[in-house]
Amino acid sequence: MLHYRTKEQKIDLPHSFLEGAQIQKILCLELQKVWILFTSGAYQVWNLNHKTKQCEGQISAQSKNHTILNAFNIAYIDLLESKLKILDLQANQINQKINMDLPTITARNEQKPSGSGSVNNNIPQQNQQKLQLMVEENTQLISLPQQSLLILCEQRTNLKGQFEYIITVIQLEIFPQFFSQFIYTSQQLCLIKPLNKKDSLILWPNLVENTQMSFLVWNVLNKEKGCLSLSFKEPFSGCAVDATSWGSNKIAFWINGNTYSKPEMKILNIKDGQEFKGLIDCYSQNGDNDSAWLLADVYHIDTEKNFAVIQKIDENTSSLDIISLGKFKCSHSIPYDSSSQQNTQFAFSQDSKYFIQYTQQLFNSGNDIEIIVHTFEPFIANTRIRAMFLMEKTGLLAQYDEQVIRKALSMIYPKNKI
User: What pTM value is reported for the model?
Assistant: First the structure.
Protein backbone atom coordinates (compact mmCIF):
# COMPACT_ATOMS: atom_id res chain seq x y z
CA MET A 1 0.00 0.00 0.00
CA LEU A 2 1.34 3.43 -0.96
CA HIS A 3 1.69 6.05 1.77
CA TYR A 4 2.28 9.77 1.27
CA ARG A 5 4.69 12.28 2.71
CA THR A 6 5.85 15.73 1.61
CA LYS A 7 9.07 17.11 0.24
CA GLU A 8 9.65 20.61 1.62
CA GLN A 9 11.15 23.55 -0.22
CA LYS A 10 11.55 27.02 1.29
CA ILE A 11 11.05 29.82 -1.21
CA ASP A 12 11.75 33.54 -0.74
CA LEU A 13 9.90 35.92 -3.06
CA PRO A 14 11.05 39.56 -3.20
CA HIS A 15 8.45 42.26 -2.75
CA SER A 16 8.35 46.04 -2.98
CA PHE A 17 5.51 47.00 -0.64
CA LEU A 18 5.60 49.65 2.04
CA GLU A 19 6.35 48.96 5.68
CA GLY A 20 3.57 47.04 7.42
CA ALA A 21 2.34 45.02 4.41
CA GLN A 22 0.73 41.77 5.55
CA ILE A 23 -0.45 38.66 3.72
CA GLN A 24 -4.21 38.15 3.90
CA LYS A 25 -4.62 35.10 1.66
CA ILE A 26 -2.73 32.78 -0.70
CA LEU A 27 -4.44 30.67 -3.36
CA CYS A 28 -2.67 27.92 -5.33
CA LEU A 29 -3.30 28.17 -9.06
CA GLU A 30 -2.35 25.71 -11.79
CA LEU A 31 1.21 25.08 -13.02
CA GLN A 32 2.91 26.00 -9.72
CA LYS A 33 1.51 29.54 -9.69
CA VAL A 34 0.18 31.30 -6.60
CA TRP A 35 -2.03 34.34 -6.03
CA ILE A 36 -0.94 36.36 -3.00
CA LEU A 37 -3.36 38.93 -1.55
CA PHE A 38 -2.21 41.55 0.96
CA THR A 39 -4.37 43.29 3.55
CA SER A 40 -4.13 46.53 1.54
CA GLY A 41 -5.97 44.84 -1.35
CA ALA A 42 -2.81 44.62 -3.46
CA TYR A 43 -2.19 41.23 -5.07
CA GLN A 44 0.59 39.45 -6.96
CA VAL A 45 0.73 36.27 -9.06
CA TRP A 46 4.02 34.35 -8.82
CA ASN A 47 5.47 31.42 -10.73
CA LEU A 48 7.12 29.30 -8.03
CA ASN A 49 9.23 27.26 -10.45
CA HIS A 50 11.02 30.34 -11.78
CA LYS A 51 10.42 32.69 -8.80
CA THR A 52 9.09 35.30 -11.20
CA LYS A 53 6.20 37.71 -10.77
CA GLN A 54 3.53 37.19 -13.47
CA CYS A 55 1.28 40.15 -12.70
CA GLU A 56 0.06 42.42 -9.91
CA GLY A 57 -2.93 44.64 -9.23
CA GLN A 58 -5.40 45.98 -6.69
CA ILE A 59 -8.83 44.98 -5.42
CA SER A 60 -10.86 46.28 -2.48
CA ALA A 61 -9.01 46.27 0.83
CA GLN A 62 -12.21 45.00 2.43
CA SER A 63 -13.08 41.69 0.77
CA LYS A 64 -13.64 38.06 1.78
CA ASN A 65 -14.23 34.50 0.54
CA HIS A 66 -11.56 34.62 -2.18
CA THR A 67 -12.27 31.47 -4.20
CA ILE A 68 -10.75 29.88 -7.29
CA LEU A 69 -13.47 29.62 -9.93
CA ASN A 70 -11.23 28.10 -12.61
CA ALA A 71 -7.68 28.41 -13.93
CA PHE A 72 -8.07 32.09 -14.84
CA ASN A 73 -10.71 33.53 -12.49
CA ILE A 74 -10.90 34.28 -8.77
CA ALA A 75 -14.25 35.15 -7.20
CA TYR A 76 -14.66 37.19 -4.03
CA ILE A 77 -17.13 39.35 -2.10
CA ASP A 78 -16.41 43.09 -2.06
CA LEU A 79 -17.58 44.24 1.38
CA LEU A 80 -17.33 47.98 0.62
CA GLU A 81 -19.71 47.75 -2.33
CA SER A 82 -21.67 44.62 -1.18
CA LYS A 83 -21.05 42.93 -4.52
CA LEU A 84 -19.90 39.59 -5.88
CA LYS A 85 -16.94 40.18 -8.19
CA ILE A 86 -14.69 38.13 -10.47
CA LEU A 87 -10.99 38.90 -10.97
CA ASP A 88 -9.87 37.83 -14.46
CA LEU A 89 -6.19 36.93 -14.14
CA GLN A 90 -5.65 36.69 -17.92
CA ALA A 91 -6.78 40.29 -18.43
CA ASN A 92 -5.56 41.24 -14.94
CA GLN A 93 -8.76 43.19 -14.25
CA ILE A 94 -12.23 42.86 -12.75
CA ASN A 95 -14.76 41.14 -15.03
CA GLN A 96 -17.36 43.87 -15.60
CA LYS A 97 -19.98 41.35 -16.71
CA ILE A 98 -20.16 39.83 -13.23
CA ASN A 99 -20.88 42.66 -10.81
CA MET A 100 -23.72 41.28 -8.73
CA ASP A 101 -25.42 43.16 -5.89
CA LEU A 102 -25.69 41.38 -2.54
CA PRO A 103 -27.81 40.14 -0.90
CA THR A 104 -29.73 38.50 -3.75
CA ILE A 105 -33.36 39.54 -4.28
CA THR A 106 -34.52 36.24 -2.78
CA ALA A 107 -32.55 36.87 0.40
CA ARG A 108 -33.88 40.44 0.67
CA ASN A 109 -37.52 39.37 0.62
CA GLU A 110 -37.63 37.68 4.02
CA GLN A 111 -40.16 40.08 5.55
CA LYS A 112 -42.56 40.18 2.58
CA PRO A 113 -46.11 39.16 3.50
CA SER A 114 -47.53 36.14 1.69
CA GLY A 115 -48.77 37.02 -1.79
CA SER A 116 -46.48 40.01 -2.32
CA GLY A 117 -44.57 39.59 -5.55
CA SER A 118 -42.87 42.98 -5.93
CA VAL A 119 -39.51 44.14 -4.64
CA ASN A 120 -39.39 47.36 -2.62
CA ASN A 121 -36.22 49.23 -3.62
CA ASN A 122 -36.81 51.95 -1.00
CA ILE A 123 -35.34 49.96 1.87
CA PRO A 124 -35.44 51.68 5.31
CA GLN A 125 -32.07 52.53 6.89
CA GLN A 126 -32.51 49.88 9.59
CA ASN A 127 -33.08 47.18 6.98
CA GLN A 128 -30.09 48.46 4.97
CA GLN A 129 -27.88 47.85 7.99
CA LYS A 130 -29.41 44.39 8.42
CA LEU A 131 -28.69 43.53 4.79
CA GLN A 132 -25.12 44.79 5.09
CA LEU A 133 -24.66 42.58 8.15
CA MET A 134 -25.96 39.61 6.12
CA VAL A 135 -23.27 40.22 3.49
CA GLU A 136 -20.49 40.66 6.04
CA GLU A 137 -21.30 37.82 8.43
CA ASN A 138 -23.87 35.47 6.91
CA THR A 139 -22.83 35.11 3.27
CA GLN A 140 -20.35 32.50 2.05
CA LEU A 141 -18.85 31.82 -1.37
CA ILE A 142 -17.50 28.45 -2.54
CA SER A 143 -16.88 26.94 -5.98
CA LEU A 144 -16.94 23.79 -8.09
CA PRO A 145 -13.91 24.56 -10.30
CA GLN A 146 -14.23 21.59 -12.67
CA GLN A 147 -17.57 23.02 -13.84
CA SER A 148 -16.67 26.71 -13.27
CA LEU A 149 -19.68 27.06 -10.97
CA LEU A 150 -19.95 29.50 -8.07
CA ILE A 151 -22.07 28.66 -5.03
CA LEU A 152 -23.39 31.61 -3.01
CA CYS A 153 -24.91 30.71 0.38
CA GLU A 154 -26.86 33.43 2.25
CA GLN A 155 -28.19 32.82 5.75
CA ARG A 156 -31.23 34.54 7.22
CA THR A 157 -33.77 33.91 9.99
CA ASN A 158 -37.44 33.60 9.02
CA LEU A 159 -40.48 34.78 10.98
CA LYS A 160 -40.68 31.40 12.76
CA GLY A 161 -37.14 31.74 14.10
CA GLN A 162 -35.77 29.08 11.73
CA PHE A 163 -32.53 29.42 9.80
CA GLU A 164 -32.97 29.66 6.03
CA TYR A 165 -30.12 29.14 3.59
CA ILE A 166 -30.55 30.61 0.11
CA ILE A 167 -28.13 28.64 -2.07
CA THR A 168 -27.56 30.21 -5.49
CA VAL A 169 -25.59 28.50 -8.25
CA ILE A 170 -23.95 30.91 -10.71
CA GLN A 171 -22.56 30.04 -14.15
CA LEU A 172 -20.67 32.80 -15.96
CA GLU A 173 -21.97 31.84 -19.41
CA ILE A 174 -25.64 32.47 -18.56
CA PHE A 175 -25.26 35.31 -16.01
CA PRO A 176 -27.29 37.37 -14.95
CA GLN A 177 -29.65 34.40 -15.04
CA PHE A 178 -28.92 31.93 -12.24
CA PHE A 179 -28.11 28.31 -13.02
CA SER A 180 -30.33 27.32 -10.09
CA GLN A 181 -31.45 28.48 -6.63
CA PHE A 182 -32.63 26.51 -3.62
CA ILE A 183 -33.79 27.39 -0.08
CA TYR A 184 -32.95 25.00 2.78
CA THR A 185 -34.58 25.43 6.21
CA SER A 186 -33.00 24.18 9.43
CA GLN A 187 -33.55 24.52 13.16
CA GLN A 188 -29.78 24.88 13.64
CA LEU A 189 -26.90 26.91 12.26
CA CYS A 190 -25.29 25.04 9.36
CA LEU A 191 -21.96 24.76 7.58
CA ILE A 192 -21.59 24.39 3.82
CA LYS A 193 -18.72 23.07 1.68
CA PRO A 194 -18.09 21.27 -1.63
CA LEU A 195 -18.01 17.48 -1.51
CA ASN A 196 -15.95 17.39 -4.69
CA LYS A 197 -14.68 19.80 -7.34
CA LYS A 198 -17.32 18.87 -9.91
CA ASP A 199 -20.97 18.78 -8.89
CA SER A 200 -21.86 18.25 -5.21
CA LEU A 201 -22.02 20.18 -1.95
CA ILE A 202 -23.11 19.38 1.60
CA LEU A 203 -24.90 21.43 4.25
CA TRP A 204 -24.90 20.16 7.85
CA PRO A 205 -25.60 21.47 11.40
CA ASN A 206 -22.68 23.21 13.07
CA LEU A 207 -23.12 21.64 16.51
CA VAL A 208 -24.60 18.17 16.89
CA GLU A 209 -24.01 16.18 20.06
CA ASN A 210 -26.03 13.22 21.35
CA THR A 211 -28.70 13.93 18.72
CA GLN A 212 -29.54 12.60 15.29
CA MET A 213 -27.53 14.15 12.46
CA SER A 214 -29.68 15.36 9.54
CA PHE A 215 -28.04 17.04 6.56
CA LEU A 216 -28.45 18.03 2.90
CA VAL A 217 -26.45 16.74 -0.08
CA TRP A 218 -27.05 18.54 -3.37
CA ASN A 219 -25.86 17.56 -6.83
CA VAL A 220 -26.20 21.02 -8.34
CA LEU A 221 -26.05 19.79 -11.95
CA ASN A 222 -29.38 18.04 -11.38
CA LYS A 223 -30.83 21.26 -9.97
CA GLU A 224 -33.85 20.74 -7.67
CA LYS A 225 -33.95 16.98 -8.38
CA GLY A 226 -30.41 16.65 -7.04
CA CYS A 227 -31.31 17.58 -3.42
CA LEU A 228 -31.15 14.74 -0.90
CA SER A 229 -32.18 15.18 2.74
CA LEU A 230 -30.34 12.49 4.71
CA SER A 231 -29.85 11.46 8.34
CA PHE A 232 -28.02 8.96 10.53
CA LYS A 233 -30.14 6.57 12.58
CA GLU A 234 -27.68 6.43 15.47
CA PRO A 235 -27.10 9.69 17.40
CA PHE A 236 -23.68 11.32 17.29
CA SER A 237 -21.66 11.01 20.49
CA GLY A 238 -19.63 14.17 19.81
CA CYS A 239 -19.35 17.26 17.60
CA ALA A 240 -18.77 17.00 13.84
CA VAL A 241 -15.60 18.86 12.84
CA ASP A 242 -15.96 18.26 9.10
CA ALA A 243 -17.84 16.33 6.44
CA THR A 244 -16.14 14.88 3.35
CA SER A 245 -16.69 12.48 0.51
CA TRP A 246 -15.63 8.89 1.18
CA GLY A 247 -15.48 7.55 -2.33
CA SER A 248 -18.50 6.69 -4.45
CA ASN A 249 -21.89 7.30 -2.77
CA LYS A 250 -20.46 7.65 0.76
CA ILE A 251 -20.34 10.64 3.11
CA ALA A 252 -17.95 10.72 6.09
CA PHE A 253 -18.27 12.86 9.21
CA TRP A 254 -15.14 13.47 11.28
CA ILE A 255 -16.12 13.77 14.95
CA ASN A 256 -14.45 14.82 18.19
CA GLY A 257 -15.72 12.80 21.15
CA ASN A 258 -17.50 14.47 24.06
CA THR A 259 -14.85 13.22 26.47
CA TYR A 260 -11.06 13.40 26.30
CA SER A 261 -10.61 10.56 23.83
CA LYS A 262 -9.78 9.85 20.21
CA PRO A 263 -11.84 11.28 17.34
CA GLU A 264 -14.07 8.95 15.39
CA MET A 265 -15.64 8.74 11.97
CA LYS A 266 -19.20 7.96 10.90
CA ILE A 267 -19.91 7.03 7.30
CA LEU A 268 -23.26 6.87 5.51
CA ASN A 269 -23.86 5.12 2.19
CA ILE A 270 -26.42 7.41 0.55
CA LYS A 271 -27.61 4.65 -1.80
CA ASP A 272 -28.52 1.86 0.63
CA GLY A 273 -28.49 3.73 3.97
CA GLN A 274 -25.80 1.55 5.58
CA GLU A 275 -23.88 3.18 8.42
CA PHE A 276 -20.29 2.55 9.50
CA LYS A 277 -18.21 3.98 12.33
CA GLY A 278 -14.77 3.61 13.85
CA LEU A 279 -12.03 5.39 15.78
CA ILE A 280 -9.56 7.54 13.85
CA ASP A 281 -6.70 5.71 15.57
CA CYS A 282 -3.67 7.12 13.76
CA TYR A 283 -1.10 7.28 16.52
CA SER A 284 -1.19 3.96 18.38
CA GLN A 285 2.45 2.92 18.35
CA ASN A 286 4.67 0.77 20.56
CA GLY A 287 1.64 -0.60 22.37
CA ASP A 288 0.43 2.86 23.41
CA ASN A 289 -3.29 2.82 22.65
CA ASP A 290 -4.41 5.39 25.21
CA SER A 291 -3.01 8.65 23.86
CA ALA A 292 -5.91 11.05 23.29
CA TRP A 293 -5.84 13.91 20.83
CA LEU A 294 -8.11 16.55 19.28
CA LEU A 295 -9.02 16.86 15.61
CA ALA A 296 -8.89 20.60 14.84
CA ASP A 297 -9.53 20.50 11.07
CA VAL A 298 -9.57 18.35 7.93
CA TYR A 299 -7.66 20.38 5.35
CA HIS A 300 -7.60 17.97 2.43
CA ILE A 301 -8.77 14.50 1.45
CA ASP A 302 -7.95 12.39 -1.62
CA THR A 303 -9.97 9.18 -1.69
CA GLU A 304 -8.33 8.05 -4.93
CA LYS A 305 -4.83 8.22 -3.45
CA ASN A 306 -6.19 7.13 -0.07
CA PHE A 307 -4.85 9.88 2.20
CA ALA A 308 -6.03 12.94 4.11
CA VAL A 309 -4.33 15.96 5.67
CA ILE A 310 -5.57 16.86 9.14
CA GLN A 311 -4.66 19.28 11.90
CA LYS A 312 -3.96 17.45 15.16
CA ILE A 313 -3.70 18.98 18.62
CA ASP A 314 -2.66 17.13 21.76
CA GLU A 315 -1.39 18.21 25.17
CA ASN A 316 2.05 19.21 23.93
CA THR A 317 2.03 19.85 20.18
CA SER A 318 0.16 21.00 17.11
CA SER A 319 0.88 19.39 13.76
CA LEU A 320 -0.35 19.00 10.23
CA ASP A 321 -0.45 15.25 9.61
CA ILE A 322 -0.85 13.09 6.52
CA ILE A 323 -2.84 9.99 7.42
CA SER A 324 -3.49 6.88 5.36
CA LEU A 325 -7.19 6.16 5.10
CA GLY A 326 -8.73 2.79 5.86
CA LYS A 327 -6.15 1.69 8.44
CA PHE A 328 -5.74 5.23 9.75
CA LYS A 329 -2.00 5.46 10.15
CA CYS A 330 0.00 8.68 10.28
CA SER A 331 2.58 8.54 7.49
CA HIS A 332 4.02 12.05 7.83
CA SER A 333 3.82 14.85 10.40
CA ILE A 334 4.64 18.56 10.08
CA PRO A 335 4.90 20.20 13.53
CA TYR A 336 4.23 23.91 13.88
CA ASP A 337 3.52 26.43 16.64
CA SER A 338 -0.23 27.07 16.57
CA SER A 339 0.13 29.65 19.36
CA SER A 340 2.45 31.82 17.27
CA GLN A 341 1.30 35.40 16.75
CA GLN A 342 2.22 35.06 13.09
CA ASN A 343 -0.78 32.76 12.51
CA THR A 344 0.30 29.82 10.33
CA GLN A 345 -1.95 29.21 7.30
CA PHE A 346 -2.13 26.54 4.58
CA ALA A 347 -3.21 26.71 0.94
CA PHE A 348 -3.80 23.53 -1.10
CA SER A 349 -3.47 23.14 -4.85
CA GLN A 350 -6.46 22.14 -6.99
CA ASP A 351 -4.58 19.15 -8.45
CA SER A 352 -3.71 17.67 -5.01
CA LYS A 353 0.01 17.77 -5.84
CA TYR A 354 1.24 20.29 -3.27
CA PHE A 355 0.30 22.81 -0.60
CA ILE A 356 1.83 25.98 0.79
CA GLN A 357 2.58 26.87 4.40
CA TYR A 358 2.82 30.56 5.21
CA THR A 359 2.38 33.05 8.04
CA GLN A 360 0.43 36.30 8.03
CA GLN A 361 3.59 38.17 8.91
CA LEU A 362 4.24 41.90 8.75
CA PHE A 363 6.84 42.85 6.15
CA ASN A 364 9.47 45.45 6.79
CA SER A 365 11.56 47.12 4.13
CA GLY A 366 13.83 44.56 2.46
CA ASN A 367 12.02 41.48 3.78
CA ASP A 368 11.11 38.71 1.36
CA ILE A 369 7.84 36.77 1.23
CA GLU A 370 8.72 33.49 2.92
CA ILE A 371 6.67 30.39 2.05
CA ILE A 372 7.21 26.65 2.31
CA VAL A 373 6.05 24.44 -0.57
CA HIS A 374 5.13 20.88 0.48
CA THR A 375 4.95 18.50 -2.50
CA PHE A 376 3.15 15.19 -1.97
CA GLU A 377 5.20 12.12 -2.86
CA PRO A 378 4.28 8.43 -2.51
CA PHE A 379 6.43 5.89 -0.71
CA ILE A 380 6.21 2.29 0.48
CA ALA A 381 7.00 1.98 4.18
CA ASN A 382 7.64 -1.78 4.37
CA THR A 383 10.74 -3.20 2.65
CA ARG A 384 9.07 -6.42 1.56
CA ILE A 385 5.99 -4.61 0.31
CA ARG A 386 8.29 -2.31 -1.66
CA ALA A 387 9.90 -5.37 -3.23
CA MET A 388 6.47 -6.84 -4.09
CA PHE A 389 5.47 -3.52 -5.63
CA LEU A 390 8.58 -3.44 -7.82
CA MET A 391 8.05 -7.07 -8.89
CA GLU A 392 4.51 -6.28 -9.90
CA LYS A 393 5.63 -3.28 -11.95
CA THR A 394 8.31 -5.32 -13.71
CA GLY A 395 5.93 -8.22 -14.46
CA LEU A 396 7.55 -10.83 -12.17
CA LEU A 397 4.31 -11.48 -10.28
CA ALA A 398 2.58 -12.35 -13.54
CA GLN A 399 5.48 -14.60 -14.59
CA TYR A 400 5.91 -16.58 -11.37
CA ASP A 401 3.58 -17.94 -8.72
CA GLU A 402 2.86 -15.30 -6.04
CA GLN A 403 3.32 -17.77 -3.17
CA VAL A 404 6.78 -18.70 -4.45
CA ILE A 405 7.76 -15.04 -4.46
CA ARG A 406 6.33 -14.56 -0.96
CA LYS A 407 8.42 -17.46 0.36
CA ALA A 408 11.52 -16.06 -1.31
CA LEU A 409 10.91 -12.64 0.22
CA SER A 410 10.34 -14.25 3.64
CA MET A 411 13.81 -15.74 3.47
CA ILE A 412 15.35 -12.36 2.54
CA TYR A 413 13.27 -10.21 4.93
CA PRO A 414 12.27 -12.57 7.77
CA LYS A 415 11.29 -9.84 10.24
CA ASN A 416 8.83 -8.02 8.00
CA LYS A 417 5.29 -9.24 7.54
CA ILE A 418 3.62 -9.18 4.18
Answer: 0.83
